[in-house]
Design a protein that fits this description.
Helices cover 93% and strands 0% of the residues. It has 139 residues and is an all-alpha fold. It is rod-shaped, with a radius of gyration of 44 Å.
């Protein structure tokens, strides 16, 4: 081999090495950028999944709040019951007592008697709940 051929061979080897090194470094940089982009996409997907979960929880909490507010309104309406309603409940209890006594006279009316007495007890307990509320309002 001549000196020119040896120099040309060394130049070709060095050129091929430089070309390989440039391609290798470019591939590393492209791979790194692609990996960063993929990581961001995964993180964004995880975040959007978390956001969907939080939105679902928010909808559930809103529904529960609406249910609680409806219960609150019903309780508020029930707390507005006063002396007139208490007297009505006492009248109902008295009528149920009379009905229970009437049913007890019949042989087949035992179940009706028990039901009437149970309803009377419930009406009396409701009237008792209304009584302290009216005494507090008077004070």
């Amino acid at each position: 081999m001549t000196a020119i051929q040896i120099c040309a061979l060394i130049g070709l080897i060095v050129g091929a090495a430089l070309l390989y090194w440039t391609g290798y470094r470019g591939g590393l940089i492209d791979g790194r950028i692609e990996g960063i982009d993929e990581g961001k996409a995964i993180q964004q997907s995880d975040n959007s999944e978390a956001i969907r979960g939080l939105e679902h929880s928010l909808h559930q909490v809103r529904a529960e709040r609406l249910q609680l507010y409806a219960r609150y309104e019903r309780a508020l309406e029930a707390s507005k019951l006063g002396e007139q309603e208490r007297l009505t409940l006492l009248a109902i209890a008295d009528k149920l007592r009379i009905a229970a006594e009437t049913f007890s006279a019949f042989r087949t009316g035992k179940k009706l008697e028990r039901d009437s007495l149970a309803l009377r007890d419930q009406a009396l307990s409701m009237a008792a709940l209304l009584e302290p509320a009216t005494q507090k309002e008077a004070a």
